[in-house]
Amino acid sequence: MADMELESGSAQSKSTSTPQERRGSVVMVHAIEFSRIALAMAGYAVAYVYSSQGHVEDAARVLQLGLAVALSGTCALEGICFYETAARQKGYDRGFDFSTGRNPYAAQSTLWFASSCIVGVVAFFVYPRETSPQIVLATLQLLFFLMSALNHAYETVSHGNWCWQNVNRPLLSAAMVAGAVPILLKAAA
């Protein structure tokens, strides 16, 4: 059997990557996944500190920035640099022919993450004392990740794809929404 190229997904790949390089991309996807969760938790922690001190505007801004960078930024990085390894880690390689080039849906999804990250960072600096833009962006990002969690849950239940990401996404997304609601409601008041 031909050696399957991890990043291209093709047994006919002309890539010259070594098994060590393929393992490296798997390690990087795991590192990005870990940093995504750790950065999101840190963002929430800082936002709650600001909120508990009565700085609700700052709490909303930090929450929004945390969501933009920790979630959208890491997803964009993963999608740009390790899209096929990430797809395999999530069980999405079934049914895709990576040998013909990049999957258009994956590219579109990556562009959303990049856009969300850019707009989130820009809003943080352009509107430093206004909570409305931060609330809107945080709500948009939370809604997207909640809908994405439903997609992961569907993949798990309907297709039996019980990989770790499909199981944890609905739980972590529900926790993110539950954690954000008090901050966003307080900031909107």
Question: What does this molecule look like?
Answer:
The protein is mostly helical and 189 residues long. It has one domain (19-94, 102-188). The chain has helices spanning 19-52, 56-81, 83-89, 104-126, 131-159, 164-188. Helix 1 runs antiparallel to helix 2, helix 2 (56-81) runs antiparallel to helix 4 and helix 2 (56-81) packs antiparallel against helix 6 (164-188). The model is unreliable at 1-14 (pLDDT under 50).
| Structural class computed from helices and strand pairing | mainly alpha
Low-confidence stretches: 1-14
Instruction: Specify the oligomeric state.
Output: single chain
Shape: elongated
Gyration radius (Cα, Å) is 18 Å
Task: Compute the separation of the termini in Å.
Answer: 63 Å
State the main characteristics.
189 residues, mainly alpha, 0% strand, elongated, disordered N terminus
Chain-wise SSE layout:
Elements: H1 19-52, H2 56-81, H3 83-89, H4 104-126, H5 131-159, H6 164-188
Gist of the model:
The chain is an all-alpha fold.
